[in-house]
Amino acid sequence: MMSIAKIKRVHLREVWKHEALDFTQWLEENIEILGEAMNREIANAEREKKTESAFSIDLVAHTTDGTSIIVENQLEKSDHDHLGKLITYMTAMQASTAVWIVADPRPEHVAAITWLNESSSADFYLMKIEAIQIEDSPKAPLLTVIVGPSEEGNSIARSKQELSERYHIRQKWWSKLVRHTNATRHSHITPGKYAWIGTSSGVPGVSLNYVVWQKESAAELYIDCGKGMDNTNVRIFDHLYAQKKEIENSFGRPLTWESLEGKRACRIRVTVQGGYTDSEEVWKKTHDLMTDAMNRLVSALDPHLKSLKVESTAALEAK
């Protein structure tokens, strides 16, 4: 029967007594080992690279296409201090890749590097360094990637970046709309990042909302009196729908009436062309259309909303 030798772990300090003087120097001279673990070609590395702020980086390596890689070494359990250094050095050197080599990666740092890969366009690696030996063979390094960039992580990062950009542009969109001279009912609202903003119509559970998508926008009356109030929502909607002809005549054209079956809310909406992905030069025209639609919608609905308020007051007095 074939005899198979066992691998045994050797204490790191038996191989590299000093992190900076021994391990970092060894890695600089054997940088191809790091490249193999990352599955990337690394051309050279420079030890103790100084930044403009006088920080000292363990290693700055370079790929064959000139991309910089920050390497931070820690021959012990990972800690917050080294994680902070990794990010600081990466920013200072404007590198696109950071590698953190540790003896013992903590779960919270594994999670942190995973999050960084999913939340930025940069590549982050967390690697575990071990020293191994087979019987009496020379001691050898074993570098294992614990966390690294992946297609799934890159996809998540792209999605998060797109979402962040979408939030930013929508907040800018709403900032301009609430300052529009005709947006009087919504001028007090702090611009948000979501697809809608709203204010009370004066009837509890009934709001006046603006909504925006990429290429369309809307003004609407939104009916949602809360959880367990589905019947109240429908009653309000039906009350207004019974006056549909009068309301639409007052508004000036047909409206979209949605009872939203299967959902607890109902709405009456008017949609206009133009959304937040248009150029900012087009936004003003779209905001003109939206605010005009909202003001005409309020004017058309207001008499009927007042009758609802009278009904609500009478019901409360009856109690």
Strand content: 25-35%
The shape, in one word, is elongated
What is the strand tally?
12
Structural class: alpha+beta
What's the pLDDT, averaged over the residues?
86
Q: What series of H and E elements makes up the topology?
A: EHHHEEEHEHEEHEEEHHEEH
State the major sheet.
7 strands, mixed
With helices defined by DSSP (H or I, 4 residues minimum), what is the helix count?
9
> From the alpha-carbon coordinates, what is the Rg to the nearest angstrom?
31 Å
In helices, the fraction of residues equals 40-55%
Q: Pick out the low-confidence regions.
A: 313-319
N-C termini distance:
92 Å
Features:
319 residues; elongated; alpha+beta; 43% helix; disordered C terminus; seven-stranded mixed beta sheet
Q: Could you explain the architecture of this structure?
A:
This protein has 319 residues and is of the alpha+beta class. 43% of the residues lie in helices and 28% in strands. The chain is built from nine helices and twelve strands. Strands 1, 2, 3, 4, 5, 6 and 7 form a seven-stranded mixed beta sheet that branches. The chain has a five-stranded antiparallel beta sheet with strand order 8-9-10-12-11, with helices on one face. The relative contact order is 0.08. The model is unreliable at 313-319 (pLDDT under 50).
Topology:
Layout: E1 7-10, H1 12-15, H2 19-29, H3 31-38, E2 42-50, E3 56-63, E4 68-77, H4 80-93, E5 97-104, H5 107-119, E6 123-134, E7 140-147, H6 151-178, E8 196-200, E9 206-212, E10 216-223, H7 230-241, H8 244-251, E11 256-258, E12 266-273, H9 280-318
Parallel strand pairs: 4-5, 5-6
Antiparallel strand pairs: 1-6, 2-3, 3-4, 6-7, 8-9, 9-10, 10-12, 11-12
